[in-house]
């Protein structure tokens, strides 16, 4: 086994340093913030900027979740852009209050309002003073210019703002555990909840999009879907026994970090529980935080996963995969793929400076047969230029890689966000032993399907 | 539930037959109202996007470009440059020091890489604020690369989608008149405002071929730069949809004396009418054209009508709500639904004009709700009030309908099903039927309760 060395230094080969971006592998910052705000009970996301940004993001998110996604906007016009967007922000929040009756308005800036320099905290302060006689909702704001970050920064920024702006007092110890789950699917959140329940601990999961972005059919159109992290619980996060934040590529300052700094809530920063070892780590952390040993159910799940990995290892061994998407998802996938003998030949992300290279080296260490090439701040054009010579057998990532998969005649295993060309993206499970098992079945079956399709003979027994 | 209409939006909603129509429109969306509308940039992008051999570079931060990456169903019979998403992905330092250098370098690089026939550079909100002179950059690159490099002044905040249509038309008008028009038939047209969604323009072009009409340029579905350059050689402009390309047709009328007619390829009457209008226009130059057109329509209808009759059996009496981009489309849809025995009870659009709405009220049944620039809460309230069976709209409207247990048909730029022409009408009927008649509606709570109450077997009977 070769010891994987991380590729922290840029490749010496003359890799062109493109100025333009072609088919970006990232989304903009307020989109991440909007998604996170959608995971708070009674909340409505509000983008301070021109109408277009909010509408575009809505349609993008709706196509994945197939749920109504109402994102308000201050709908700035030309005059506001010149004289400042304050009046529209205030008016917009009032209108949203009238129509939606939210308990929280999550205000995120856009490139426009960042550039004209609107001082959102100040405007909101004025707003609270001016309309203090009304029954005002909580208003949390986050600064999300897209020219300095990606959607994951928006997500983590919003989570941190929620914690810092709502959880301002030390709450009485409540025996809970805070989980900051990162940008995972609705099904992933449901699974995390199940696990915590089985450990006998009440988890405050922030944000919790499991219901708000995957709701049931109902009698009536609801303005704000039920579910989401209750505001009261966010306020009491300071009384939790520990926080667990999932992600090895998080910004230095996060909700978990500030809870630890302000209230001494022990913060565990571990990777997304994807694959065997990262899931082990998650359950160990839960054991440590709760003092409860791993319930038998998970021993069985773990056992089934290992059993399946053994049964299926030959189908996937040595397959070459290109993996792309959000940093932490990519790191998690690399962790699991290393465990099943799939060689990640390229791991790419559109974000930069979040340490994906280090994370990948950490999670694949000891098992990976080769050390994956890690590319940060890349678009699909960059990745394609490299991938063509790497001859992958598989692409693993969101729907936007489909054209490339099709061009190279290799299958695409769809994970993460957005899944725009398949059904049920929000219900895909990636986390825990169960998620790993589901992913394993899918990867093996994808390889089998491809083999079957490429074969001249119609074998019905593979 | 408080679905009351916001005071400031009341004059954007009208009920047909209840007094004179005086609907407010073309104003900025209301802050906090969760408008379904996009921005100026969106309008420009919609119109120019299908020009397949041009480079479309979005100058701005990344979002504006990613959200418009290959989301439309506009097909090309050749190059597919339009399906890639190019951006300058402005970073903080560009915002501080200006993005002109980056834009120029990006254009250089992309033009070398893809050898496009022309390049469109879209300006987004932030570019308007930092004040990049994209006009100057485009001029420089145009000179150095020897292809037209056209700025599109589409800063999102400078109005709504309609302003974007105008910006797109202005950009295109710079190409018009630059090519050689020799060899163009006197019986010739340009097709404006069709975007070749799911190959619709190919259906329409086939009709014109059978009529003996030459199509000089598709503007912009399956569009080519060279065709745009010589389209001023055509005898007539056909403008589909009121909003998008009317401005270009007007410019061409002024500058080159080319008359235009407004047409629609949706639904039976409008499709046939459009073809007859063209035949009529050319009857002096080509006396046989009227006969050929009649024959064409007869042939098509003889295939179509029996099929439609089958769907009508199931669909008669069902109620439809629609919320579309341009209101011109709404006229055609109302008529198309009548062929299926269905009644349109809500008709709204993002960007209708006062004249459009007045015309809409003329053909709408009394009581029909006419709305400009709606939002999810209003739309859901209308759906319930009018108890509709089918909603026609775009991606953002779909989950609203579905949550209320109402069938939905996509009728926006993202669709992958051809709905234009006679063949399209059949596709349309099929899709409407599949949406409205599915047994799933029996199980949706809002309607399941009603089924139980009335003891009926199925909602759709
Ligand atoms: S302007 Fe900024 S916030 Fe708006 S869509 Fe573009 S990148 Fe996103
Ligand atoms: S930044 Fe402006 S141009 Fe870009 S999507 Fe937003 S409103 Fe439209």
From TrEMBL, chain A:
Record has Transferase as a keyword: no
Keywords: Nitrogen fixation
Entry GO MF terms: nitrogenase activity
Lipid biosynthesis found in the keyword field: no
Residue span(s) of domain Nitrogenase/oxidoreductase component: 28-447
InterPro entries listed in its UniProt record: ChlB/BchB/BchZ (IPR050152), Nase/OxRdtase_comp1 (IPR000510), Nase_comp1_CS (IPR000318)
Domain of life: Bacteria
SUPFAM superfamilies linked: Helical backbone' metal receptor
Family label: Belongs to the NifD/NifK/NifE/NifN family.
Name this protein carries in UniProt: Nitrogenase
Organism lineage string: Bacteria, Pseudomonadati, Thermodesulfobacteriota, Desulfovibrionia, Desulfovibrionales
From TrEMBL, chain B:
Protein name: Nitrogenase iron-molybdenum cofactor biosynthesis protein NifE
Coiled-coil stretches noted in the UniProt entry, renumbered to this chain: none
Alphabetical GO biological process terms: protein-containing complex assembly
Function: This protein may play a role in the biosynthesis of the prosthetic group of nitrogenase (FeMo cofactor).
Pathway membership: Cofactor biosynthesis; Fe-Mo cofactor biosynthesis
Chain ranges of the Nitrogenase/oxidoreductase component domain: 39-434
GO MF annotation terms: nitrogenase activity
Family: Belongs to the NifD/NifK/NifE/NifN family.
InterPro entries cross-referenced by the UniProt entry: Nase/OxRdtase_comp1 (IPR000510), Nase_comp1_CS (IPR000318), NifE (IPR005973), NifE-like (IPR049939)
Pfam families hit by this protein: Oxidored_nitro (PF00148)
Keyword vocabulary terms for this entry: Nitrogen fixation
């Amino acid at each position: 086994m070769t010891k994987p060395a991380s590729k922290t230094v840029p490749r010496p080969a003359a890799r062109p340093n493109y100025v333009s971006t072609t088919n970006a592998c990232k989304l903009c910052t307020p989109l991440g913030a909007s998604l996170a705000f959608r995971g708070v009970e009674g909340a409505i996301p509000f983008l301070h900027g021109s109408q277009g940004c909010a509408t575009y993001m809505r349609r993008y998110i709706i196509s994945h979740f197939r749920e109504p996604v109402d994102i308000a906007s201050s709908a700035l016009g030309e005059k506001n852009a010149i004289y400042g967007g304050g009046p529209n922000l205030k008016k917009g929040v009032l209108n949203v209050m009238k129509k939606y009756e939210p308990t929280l308005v999550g205000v995120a800036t856009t490139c426009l309002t960042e550039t004209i320099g609107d001082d959102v905290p100040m405007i909101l302060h004025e707003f609270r003073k001016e309309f203090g006689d009304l029954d005002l909702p909580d208003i949390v704001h986050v600064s999300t210019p897209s020219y300095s970050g990606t959607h994951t920064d928006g997500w983590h920024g919003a989570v941190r703002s929620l914690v810092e702006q709502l959880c301002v007092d030390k709450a009485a110890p409540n025996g809970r555990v805070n989980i900051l789950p990162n940008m995972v699917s609705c099904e992933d959140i449901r699974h995390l909840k199940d696990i915590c329940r089985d450990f006998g601990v009440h988890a405050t999961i922030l944000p919790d999009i499991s219901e708000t972005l995957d709701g049931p059919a109902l009698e009536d159109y609801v303005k704000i879907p039920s579910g989401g992290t209750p505001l009261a619980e966010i306020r009491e996060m300071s009384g939790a026994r520990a926080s667990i934040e999932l992600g090895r590529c998080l910004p230095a300052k996060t909700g978990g970090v500030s809870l630890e700094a302000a209230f001494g809530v022990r913060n565990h920063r571990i990777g997304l529980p994807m694959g065997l070892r990262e899931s082990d780590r998650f359950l160990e952390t839960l054991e440590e935080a709760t003092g409860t040993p791993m319930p038998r159910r998970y021993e069985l799940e773990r056992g089934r996963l290992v059993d399946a990995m053994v049964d299926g290892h030959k189908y996937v061994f040595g397959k070459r995969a290109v993996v792309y998407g959000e940093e932490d998802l990519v790191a998690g996938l690399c962790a699991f793929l290393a465990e099943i003998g799939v060689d990640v030949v390229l791991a790419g992300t559109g974000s930069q400076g979040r340490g994906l290279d280090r994370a990948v080296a950490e999670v694949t260490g000891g098992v990976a047969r080769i050390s994956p090439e890690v590319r940060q701040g890349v678009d699909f054009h960059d990745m394609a230029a490299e991938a063509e010579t790497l001859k992958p057998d598989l692409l693993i990532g969101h729907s936007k890689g489909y054209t490339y998969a099709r061009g190279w005649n290799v299958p695409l295993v769809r994970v993460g966000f957005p899944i725009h060309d398949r059904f049920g993206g929000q219900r895909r499970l990636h986390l825990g032993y169960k998620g790993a098992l589901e992913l394993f079945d899918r990867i093996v079956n994808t390889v089998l399907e491809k083999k079957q399709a490429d074969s001249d003979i119609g074998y019905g027994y593979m | 539930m408080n679905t009351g209409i916001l005071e400031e939006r009341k004059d954007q909603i009208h009920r047909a037959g209840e007094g004179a129509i005086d609907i407010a429109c073309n104003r900025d969306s209301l802050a906090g109202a969760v408008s379904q509308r996009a921005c100026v940039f969106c309008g420009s992008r919609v119109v120019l996007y299908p020009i397949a051999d041009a480079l479309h570079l979005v100058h701005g931060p990344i979002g504006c470009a990613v959200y418009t990456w290959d989301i439309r169903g506009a097909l090309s019979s050749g190059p597919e440059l339009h399906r890639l998403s190019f951006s300058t992905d402005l970073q903080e330092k560009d915002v501080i020091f200006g993005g002109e250098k980056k834009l120029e370098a990006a254009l250089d690089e992309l033009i070398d890489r893809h050898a496009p026939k022309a390049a469109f550079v879209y300006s987004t909100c932030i570019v308007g604020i930092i004040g990049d002179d994209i006009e100057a950059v485009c001029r420089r690159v145009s000179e150095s690369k020897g292809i037209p490099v056209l700025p599109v002044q589409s800063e999102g905040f400078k109005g709504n989608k309609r302003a974007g249509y105008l910006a797109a038309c202005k950009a295109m008008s710079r190409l018009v008149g630059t090519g050689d028009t020799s060899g163009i038939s006197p019986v010739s047209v340009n097709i404006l405002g069709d975007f070749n969604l799911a190959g619709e323009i190919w259906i329409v072009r086939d009709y014109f071929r059978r009529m003996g009409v030459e199509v000089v340029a598709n503007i912009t579905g399956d569009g080519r730069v060279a065709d745009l350059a010589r389209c001023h050689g055509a005898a007539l402009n056909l403008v589909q949809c009121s909003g998008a390309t009317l401005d270009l047709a007007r410019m061409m009328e002024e500058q080159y004396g080319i008359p235009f007619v407004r047409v629609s390829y949706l639904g039976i009457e409008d499709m046939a009418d459009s073809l007859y209008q063209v035949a009529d226009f050319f009857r002096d130059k080509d006396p046989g054209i009227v006969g050929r057109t009649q024959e064409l329509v007869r042939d098509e209808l003889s295939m179509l009508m029996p099929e439609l009759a089958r769907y009508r059996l199931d669909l008669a009496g069902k109620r439809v709500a629609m919320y579309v981009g341009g209101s011109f489309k709404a006229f055609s849809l109302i008529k198309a639904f009548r062929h299926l025995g269905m009644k349109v009870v809500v008709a709204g659009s993002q960007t209708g004009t006062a004249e459009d709405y007045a015309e809409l009220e003329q053909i709408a049944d009394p009581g029909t709700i006419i709305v400009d620039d709606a939002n999810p809460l209003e739309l859901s309230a209308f759906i319930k009030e009018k108890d509709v069976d089918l909603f026609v709209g775009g991606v953002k409207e779909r989950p609203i309908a579905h949550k209320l247990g109402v069938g939905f048909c996509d009728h926006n730029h993202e669709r992958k099903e051809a709905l234009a022409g006679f063949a399209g009408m059949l596709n349309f009927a099929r899709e409407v039927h599949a949406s409205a008649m599915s047994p799933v509606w029996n199980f949706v709570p809002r309607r399941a309760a009603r089924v139980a109450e009335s003891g009926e077997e199925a909602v759709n009977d």
